Each structure stands twice: as structure tokens, then as C-alpha cells.
Amino acid sequence: xxxxxxxxxxxxxxxxxxxxxxxxxxxxxxxxxxxxxxxxxxxxxxxxxxxxxxxxxxxxxxxxxxxxxxxxxxxxxxxxxxxxxxxxxxxxxxxxxxxxxxxxxxxxxxxxxxxxxxxxxxxxxxxxxxxxxxxxxxxxxxxxxxxxxxxxxxxxxxxxxxxxxxxxxxxxxxxxxxxxxxxxxxxxxxxxxxxxxxxxxxxxxxxxxxxxxxxxxxxxxxxxxxxxxxxxxxxxxxxxxxxxxxxxxxxxxxxxxxxxxxxxxxxxxxxxxxxxxxxxxxxxxxxxxxxxxxxxxxxxxxxxxxxxxxxxxxxxxxxxxxxxxxxxxxxxxxxxxxxxxxxxxxxxxxxxxxxxxxxxxxxxxxxxxxxxxxxxxxxxxxxxxxxxxxxxxxxxxxxxxxxxxxxxxxxxxxxxxxx
Amino acid sequence: xxxxxxxxxxxxxxxxxxxxxxxxxxxxxxxxxxxxxxxxxxxxxxxxxxxxxxxxxxxxxxxxxxxxxxxxxxxxxxxxxxxxxxxxxxxxxxxxxxxxxxxxxxxxxxxxxxxxxxxxxxxxxxxxxxxxxxxxxxxxxxxxxxxxxxxxxxxxxxxxxxxxxxxxxxxxxxxxxxxxxxxxxxxxxxxxxxxxxxxxxxxxxxxxxxxxxxxxxxxxxxxxxxxxxxxxxxxxxxxxxxxxxxxxxxxxxxxxxxxxxxxxxxxxxxxxxxxxxxxxxxxxxxxxxxxxxxxxxxxxxxxxxxxxxx
Lengths: 419, 310
Prior knowledge:
The complex is a heterodimer of chains A (419) and B (310).
Chain A: H1 10-22, H2 26-52, H3 67-80, H4 83-91, H5 95-122, H6 145-172, H7 179-205, H8 218-244, H9 251-281, H10 288-294, H11 304-323, H12 334-348, H13 350-357, H14 372-406, H15 408-418
Helix pairs in contact in A: 1-14, 2-14, 3-5, 3-7, 3-8, 3-13, 4-5, 4-7, 5-6, 5-8, 5-14, 6-7, 6-14, 7-8, 8-9, 8-12, 9-11, 10-13, 11-12, 12-13
Chain B: H1 2-31, H2 36-52, H3 62-80, E1 85-87, E2 97-102, H4 111-119, E3 132-137, E4 159-164, H5 173-177, E5 183-185, E6 191-193, H6 203-207, E7 213-215, E8 230-232, E9 244-246, H7 251-254, H8 261-265, E10 271-275, H9 282-289, E11 291-293, E12 305-309
Parallel strand pairs in B: 1-8, 2-12
Antiparallel strand pairs in B: 2-10, 3-4, 5-6, 7-9, 11-12
């Protein structure tokens, strides 16, 4: 149907997207080369793990989830955070954020790809993966929270891939996207973003066997930390786009994101304080995991430096964002953003998963740190995620920029009217 | 409906046939005719291929169960040269298994652990054990305060011993957690795993409050001469890496009316196993006449494993 439109259609769209991705400066090629090397490292690690089994990791019957599931948990938050751009831009019609919402959505898609990859590499029998697919397999829905997570993550991936794909495709054809075709899905995706993170929290929260996780604050705190770390990562991507491409991003956008990140980070710290208070004001048997995390138990204290680093850089990052000493040049906030991201990554990754499993239900205490195979595979998955983000973002920004330029005249008249 | 069913079966049969033919043919072409060995390896490949696409155990009908059992037996014969006998006996009528552990009698010899490892073909390489014995000091009541790694002469003065294993909860959190329904509670109360359906996500392991489940981190290894050949599909048959497994109250024995290996091996008579629905059983006597208690009752898992003190 659309293909009949001689010059521009689906075929030329796909062709152009591929061509744009293949062309680029020398630096861009080096950058892509590095990502491909990372992915190859991951492939190598996975081959080792596939041959020897998960014994190639440092996980055990006690710490049965490790680095992969830690990263998965953190990245679900990053994916959910796209909603912090989608909500203001589509619902409150914020013009600034509307300009970068596509970048938020692409970051979400990349994060979701990483999430799925992390779960996949964590499976003991990946070839039996099809047992999960309803119809040919047996999905334990609605009883198992893991089945919920599989459904919501895939649904969110579809929403965040298809809506932007439709809009970008319309812009490619120099058409205005039809609101009634995609707006309903935008609203669904807003609720869905909250759902993916609440469901992921419930995955842990729903286990009475693990007192450290069996905590009603887990879901809301997941959201708060996600809405800090996610937009922080989006800000970083925007800074990179701003410096590396000719798609320019206004300072006001960075400032709006700063305020979103700051509010979420403060709420996150409040909830963290509330949790610490509960564990340490009157420590019970159920506080053992928290003691293990913050102070170590029976000489097993490998997590202690990590969690204290996480908390201090979390607080530092939040304070810098709050006092904002570099008003005119948002790029100088980048270190603060990196601190905040790293803090939340530690605290919500390894600082959440491992203490949930230690001490074991039979009171045994062990240490865990990822093996080199786990590191290789993680590097590969991260490379894959950034690669996916790059190949989606590059054509999208070219199309968006052309579309903007084509209708600049129209836009200016609208601005005049608004003023 | 009938015709549809027939249709699927014939399609399945066709596919299986076509695949075996293709595999055999392909193998013959690529390696050339080398006689018996080749035929056997291509047959093994075809068998494994069919195993890969088989259904969840609970959805198989009698015929399909027979087929998978004969495939598994044939594979064991071909690949390891061991003739095993895999049983699919279902739950018996009016039976609900229960277990009691006499804290006073146990002296920590761990004969039960050794018997369990042998009977259930547990991985020797990672030293997997379903049963764990904790050495406790007087005043302690829960194994999480005890020492599960003691290595000295037993019994030790001033200490007592508690064994833990899968407690076969009536309300099992692991079953609720499994995303593929690969683990479930049988009508006779045994919580089992369909090894071949498990994808190895280990969510059940995180959900278990009793440390009752074990994961095959590596490819399990058992000396050929030590393999128990009387096997059950849901019990002690061959497992591979990446699968979850657990105590099944020796399903291959208990469903034949025998005691579990651990009960039989215990030199002090600290272990009691039997049918909770039989008023004359020993387990019922213990529950009615002794002071019994269970671990972590507050979680509402309702384990069918009681501790008692003489």
C-alpha cells in the first residue's frame, strides 16, 4: 500500500536506515568497533558458560542469583524511566521534552534488550526457553511472578518499539502521525512502565522465605530509584548526542531532567533511610541480611565497601544536583549524574540481590563476587544494549532533524502565536 | 475435536519420522558407512531430538509416557551402557506421605546422607546432598543456629543433631514461583520436578524457606558402577546440568510401598516415614503421642515434616 508511493515507502525506509547506520565518521566507526568487540567478549564468555554450565559463574546453591540478575533489576528501572519523558511530553504537552522523548524511548528499548539478555544468560537450560511460551509451552500465569515479569517486559518492549517506529516512519514520509493511532498506546505505556517495575519488585517482595526482600517498600523504592537513575542515563545520552551529533539539545531540557532526577533521588534516599532505620533500630533475626550488607557477618564482608561507596556517592550526587553550582553549563553536571547512576547501580544491583540470599535459610554465610565469565558476559550484554540504542537512535535523529527543518516555517508561526 | 486431535497426532508422527529419516540419512552421508557405531549415534541423535520436543510430563498420556521412558532407557543403554528401569507409577489411593525426625535419637552419623546420595544418583562431582545434618548446642532450636559443616567424631558431648531436607510443604512456595509449572505437588503430597521441563531459572530456589532445592551447576557425574538402576521418571533418573532437583521422598521406593533410603539407613531409628492417612501407621503414632513441632510455622507453608523429642 505505502510501497506504491514510488519514491518513499517501507522499503526505502529500511534501506535508508541501514545505510545511515553503515555510514559515519572515523570516530563513529571506532565506537561501533568497540561495541562489537564487547559483544564478541560476551559471546566468548557465553560459549564457556554453555559448555561448562553455570558452574562457570561464582553462583552457588546459596547465592543462586548473582551479577546477571542484579544488572537485570537495575536495567528494568532504566527501561521504566522513559515514562518520565513520555508523561510530560504527551500528557502535559511539554514542547521541550517532546523533542527528546524519542531518545528516552530508544534508551528504554536498549535497556529492555539488556534485561531480556541478562535473564536469558542466567538460565540453566536456555535451549528449553520455549517452555515459557504460552501455547507451545506452559506459562505459570498468574501464579508465578516471573511469568508476570516476562509478559510485562515483552509488552513494554513492544509498546516502546512500535510507537516510536510509527512516529518516526510518518516523519520519514514527511507526514504528521495520526494521534488516534498511537496516542492510546502512549497512555497504556505510561501505566505499563510503572507496572514493569512494580512487578519486578514483587518478584522479590513476594518471597516470605527472604525477609530482606519481603518488604512492602520495595516496589515504591524501585520506582523512586528508577526515576532517578533512568533519567540520569537519558541525560548522559543527551549530552553525548548534543556533543557528538548535530542534533542540538537545549539547556532547558537538561534543567527539567535535573529536577526530575533530583526529586526522585531525594525520595529514594528517604526510603533508604526508612529501611535502614527499620533494620538497625531494633535488629531482629530478620536483620541479618542488612548486617551482612552494611557491616559483614562472620568475616564475610565483601559487600561492605560497595554499599558504603554506593550510599556516599548517592548522597554526593544528589547534593550536587540540588545545589546545581554550574547553572549555565549543564554538561558539568555529568559527574554528578555518573555518581548517582553508579550509586543506584550498586545499591539496587548486587547490594539488593546478594544480601537477599545470604544468610541462607539455614543460616549459612558466604561471600560472592562475579567470576571472569560473568564479567565477560555482562560486558557483552551491555555492549549489545548500547549497540541497539545506537543503531535505533542514529536514523531516528536524522529523520527527526530533517522533519523539523522541513516544517520550521510552520513551527515559527506557531511559536509566534503562542507568545 | 476428534479429527483435530487425530490430525495433530499424525502431523507429529510425520514430523518425527521425517526428522529421524533426515538425521539418519544426513549422518550416513557425512561420515560414510562405518556400520554399527554410526547407526547407534544417529539413533541417539534422533532420540534426543524427540526428547527435546516432548511435552510436560503431566500433559502426556499413557502412550507418550511409555515412549519417553523407552527413549530414556535406550539412551542410557547407548550412551553409558547401563540398563536402567524407569518407572512412572502414579500416586497410590488414600496415601499422603509424612515424615518425622526424632531430635533425641539422631547422633549425627550421616548414614542417611550417604544412603540418599547413592539411592538418588546425586552428583558426586559437586558433592550434592539433599539431606543436611546440623550440629546444635543445647538451647538452640532452629538449624540456622547450628553447624552444618561439622567434621569430627559424633556424637559430641553437649550437642544434639537436626536433619533438614525438602519438607514437602502442603502449601509450597516453590510451586507457586515456578514460571513453567515444572514443579508441583503430587496428590500423595510429594513435591516433584519434571527435570526435562525445568528451564533452570532458580526462582523456586529463592522462594524456598528451607533450602530444600538443589541446582546442577555442572554436568553431574556418577561412577558407572554406583548408579541405582531402579529409577522413577520424577525421581532418581539421570539429570543434566542446568536442572533443578530435590528430595522426592524416594518416590521410586515409596510408591512401591518401601521406606525411603534415609529411613532405612538410619542406625538410631531417628527417622519415621509413612502414610498420614493410615491411622495405624508409625507416623500417625508419633503425631498423636509425641510433642511435635515444625520449622518456620509462621510462614504458613504447612510442611509435612515434624520434629519430635522423646
